Amino acid sequence: MPLAEQRPAPQPAHTIGLAPSAALPSGIIGWRPVGWQGSRCSSPSHDNGLARGQENAAMKGRGVRLDDRDLKILAILQREGRITKAELAKRVNLSATPCWARLQRLEEAGVIESYGARIAFKHLTPHTYVFVTIELESHRAEDFQRFEEIVGGIPEIFECFAVGGGIDYVIKVMAHDVDSYQTLVDGLLDSDAGVKRYWTYFVTKPVKEEPPPLFATLQPPE
Q: Comparing 47 with 157, which gets the higher pLDDT?
């Protein structure tokens, strides 16, 4: 589906609305932001293409307003979390001081929550990923709360989403093997989690793992 046409507008004078802090020390920024799922790195030409025509792209909420350069910084960090500070400033066409003022404001505003590394577990231990959809016996508020608390205490369940449309939750599990997964499920069923039915989907291979499409998501409607 084509993206909606972007109508240029003047860039806001203040992008975040927080007072700038002292410049960050030089060197490498850090690891990929937590939640990063991608495996491709952007090229300068790719990033320029994303930013073109996005001068009025903005996100409003909690007092945060982002212009096209802020979005470009975020898009680069999603894919290249260990980019050097000098290279990031060059890629967004800013000198070092204003670039790092922007980055620090993004961190202070909570837009960048944290940094983390994406680990290749295939080099560490045998494992398999499993998606599981779950329906609960009862749908009172306390039933949902109890299930979420129990799931929160199981480290092998590393993602859990409450969803609509006939089921209640989708969880993602990393287990050593099928037997380990079944042991986990048996424990969940024997607990007070209130699971009525569940459906198991073993991952055979990853097809696409990328960060969310930042520019497309924040592009205002036509």
A: 157
User: In whole angstroms, what is the distance from residue 196 CA to residue 27 CA?
Assistant: 52
Give Cα 120 to chain centroid, integer Å: 18
Q: Are residues 65 and 88 in the same domain?
A: yes
Segments of 75-146 assigned E as strands: 128-136
Residues 6+ apart with CB under 8 A from 153: none
Residue 150 is predicted with a pLDDT of 97
Provide the residue range defining the domain that includes 135: 121-202
198 and 172 co-located in one domain: yes
pLDDT tens figures, 143-166: 999 999 999 999 999 999 999 988
- Clarify whether residues 86 and 163 are in a common domain: no
Return d(Cα 36, Cα 18) in angstroms, integer: 26
Beta-sheet pairing, 128-136 with 169-175: antiparallel
By the 8 A CB rule, do 144 and 195 touch?
A: no
Plot region of 17 (φ>0 → left; ψ -120 to 50 → alpha; else → beta): left
pLDDT digits (tens, 9 = 90+) for 179-211: 999 999 999 999 999 999 999 999 998 898 887
Measured distance CA(187)–CA(203) in Å, rounded: 21
Sheet containing 128-136, strands listed edge to edge, beginning at the edge strand earlier in sequence: 157-162, 169-175, 128-136, 195-202
Q: What angle, 0 to 180 degrees and rounded to 10, lies between the N-to-C axes of helices 68-79 and 44-51?
A: 140
pLDDT of 20 strictly over 60: no
Amino acid at the residue 117 = A
* 211 in any annotated domain: no
